[in-house]
Amino acid sequence: MRTDMSPDPSDRPALRRDLLAARRAFAATPAFLSAQAALAAPLAALLARLEPGLLGVYWPLAGEFDPGALRWPRALPFARREPAGMAYRRWDGGAPAARDECGIATAGGAVAVPDVVLVPCVGFTRAGFRLGYGGGYFDRWLAAHPGVTAIGVAWSGGEVDFAVEAHDRALTLILTERELIAPD
Q1: Residue 86 to residue 142: CA distance in whole angstroms
Q2: Pick the CATH number of 12-63+71-181 from 3.30.360.10, 3.40.1280.10, 3.40.50.10420, 3.50.50.60
Q3: Cα separation of 16 and 122, whole Å?
Q4: Closest CA to 123 of 27, 3, 38, 14
Q5: Pairing state between β 74-80 and 55-56
Q6: Is the pLDDT of residue 148 over 80?
Q7: Residue 17: which H helix or E strand, with range?
Q8: Rounded to whole angstroms, how far apart are CA atoms 121 and 157?
Q9: H/E element holding 32?
Q10: How many CA atoms lie within 13 A of 69 on its CB side?
Q11: What pLDDT is recorded for position 4?
Q12: Which of 135, 113, 133, 103 is nearest to 121 (CA)?
């Protein structure tokens, strides 16, 4: 996905912009549906091994993997703008009727702490760091819940180098449509 004209690894906003544009283009191709299926099967197998009591998922934004068909007890994040933070709310799997303060669909159930969370990645490194949308919501949540198994869900084309910042939290695993990455 990167070209010689790609931004400097320290320019996270430019990397994010380029990766999101590439993801939108990818989502408009027939390969996108194949990638969804190629990621779904190993994710289901991985979750079967982990046996989460409560699985934190996310409501997919444009071009993200859709984790909605997973059958474990689930929770969706609810993001607050002021003070910035995030909590998970139990979700029955139905169409969410609520939106969080960032405008993303969420559940109205009780606040809960999942033992396994799926974290959407705009970009990622082999060392397990994720480039998200720039709000730091998942990083703050992961910092407050260090024992949780965090699985980054990404498209293989999102692998990039970027400058890791002090607030960034490494993920336990990253799963793409091509491979499972277990950072050292």
Answers
A1: 10
A2: 3.40.50.10420
A3: 7
A4: 14
A5: parallel
A6: yes
A7: helix 12-27
A8: 11
A9: helix 30-50
A10: 9
A11: 43
A12: 133
pTM for the model: 0.92
Tell me how far apart the alpha carbons of residues 88 and 115 are, in angstroms, rounded to a whole number: 11
The residue ranges of every structural domain in the chain are 12-63+71-181
Preceding amide of 83 cis, omega within 30: yes
| Amino acid symbol at 173 | L
Helix (H) or strand (E) holding 111: strand 111-112
CA distances from 151 to 13, 21, 48 (A): 23, 23, 14
In the chain, the percentage of residues whose pLDDT exceeds 90 is: 85
Q: Which two tokens stand for residue 63?
A: 């071009």
- What are the counts of helices (DSSP H) followed by strands (DSSP E) for the chain? 3, 12
Residue type, 157: G
